[in-house]
Amino acid sequence: MNIICNKNQLAKGVGIVSRAVSGKTTLPILECILLDATSGEFTLIGNDLDMGIKTVLEANIKEQGTIAVNAKIFNEIIRKLPDEDVSIETDERNNITIRCAKSKFNIPGQSSADFPELPTIESNHQLVLSQGIFKNMIHETIFSIAPEDSGRPILTGELIDVRDGYLHLVAVDGFRISMRRTEVNSENDFKVTVPGKALNEIHKILASEDDELMTVSFTGKHILFQMNETLVVTRLLEGEFLQYQRNLSMDFTSKIRINKKDLLDSIDRAALISRESKNSPVRLEIDKEKMVITSNTELGSAYEEVPLQLEGEGLTIAFNPKYYLEALRVIEEEEVCILYSSSLTPCIIQDPEKEDYQYFILPIRLHA
């Protein structure tokens, strides 16, 4: 193989596909990325067997070929090269020569024969989405997935639920539900659960602009995201996801409208007193005119007031402040609506006008 390409484009591409390189493996080939110049274009591939990433770069292909190279050392070399064109050449012994300006590196490669192929995705289920919107949806929900050691593998991912003309992205950790939705054009309804690790990496790759489009394709075992010159394919999580709709469609007896920033800042300050103790909730006392937010621990006490509009009855309820703060920080609207019924039942934070986002949070029982 003998190719020449732009250093900055190469560094960006290597950084992207390295997100799918295994950090913990007994197979040296999984620590590699594949350089492939055999099909008239120069492609880079990373594949840890759960997730694979492929990106296509512009290059002058002087001689076709393919080789695997240790991702870590290759990435570090390319990043630190001068901002000039890079030449990559291989020989029959899988040695790699990298030249850029007056820099030259010789490093060993590996045969591409052992590098795992990406799964082929042939699906009738295909959606076209805005990259910017989907990027925001991940950011606005991913914090609610369950940790890897939760004992509930299905909840370490997010549900993509396509129904009724909407794509719903849903995360659940057993204490809260985060849901965002966007309109889609789809003839079929379906559900798949995507690993949180994969969505985290996809979030980093997606463009921020709403007018940049992506294609999403599903099969029974895999999902593929195609973004311009880059594609990501990942295994789906197996099992049945929580029936979240029942929780988000509960009947509530009371509703408040409140300024989002005022509420966020007040809870954030009150949480300073409870931050050292994971079991110390923030207490919310709601009446017709205001919400009183208090926190009392061995560190001291905090008191905050926030004006509100109330429909229904007031109450006193307590929550883990982290769950409120993480939801409020990703909401862009000036006002939020909070629905509740009693101090022992969950609340929902949502848009006052529509239901494009909903955050369902379980309360903490108050001690007498």
UniProtKB/TrEMBL annotation:
Claim: Nucleotidyltransferase is one of the keywords in the record: yes
Highest taxon of the lineage: Bacteria
GO MF terms, alphabetically ordered: 3'-5' exonuclease activity; DNA binding; DNA-directed DNA polymerase activity
Name of the featured protein: Beta sliding clamp
Subunit structure: Forms a ring-shaped head-to-tail homodimer around DNA.
Record domain DNA polymerase III beta sliding clamp N-terminal: where: 1-119
Subcellular location: Cytoplasm
Coiled coil stretches, renumbered: none
Family from the record: Belongs to the beta sliding clamp family.
SMART domains in alphabetical order: POL3Bc (SM00480)
Organism: Bianquea renquensis
Residue intervals of the DNA polymerase III beta sliding clamp C-terminal domain: 251-365
Database matches in PANTHER family: BETA SLIDING CLAMP (PTHR30478:SF0), DNA POLYMERASE III SUBUNIT BETA (PTHR30478)
InterPro entries: DNA_clamp_sf (IPR046938), DNA_polIII_beta (IPR001001), DNA_polIII_beta_C (IPR022635), DNA_polIII_beta_cen (IPR022637), DNA_polIII_beta_N (IPR022634)
Key words, A-Z: Cytoplasm, DNA replication, DNA-binding, DNA-directed DNA polymerase, Nucleotidyltransferase, Transferase
Recorded GO CC terms: cytoplasm; DNA polymerase III complex
Membrane spanning residue stretches: none
One Pfam family here: DNA_pol3_beta_3
Keyword Zinc-finger: no
Domain DNA polymerase III beta sliding clamp central: 129-241
Function: Confers DNA tethering and processivity to DNA polymerases and other proteins. Acts as a clamp, forming a ring around DNA (a reaction catalyzed by the clamp-loading complex) which diffuses in an ATP-independent manner freely and bidirectionally along dsDNA. Initially characterized for its ability to contact the catalytic subunit of DNA polymerase III (Pol III), a complex, multichain enzyme responsible for most of the replicative synthesis in bacteria; Pol III exhibits 3'-5' exonuclease proofreading activity.
Gene Ontology biological-process entries: DNA strand elongation involved in DNA replication
Signal peptide segment: none
Principal location listed in the UniProt entry: cytoplasm
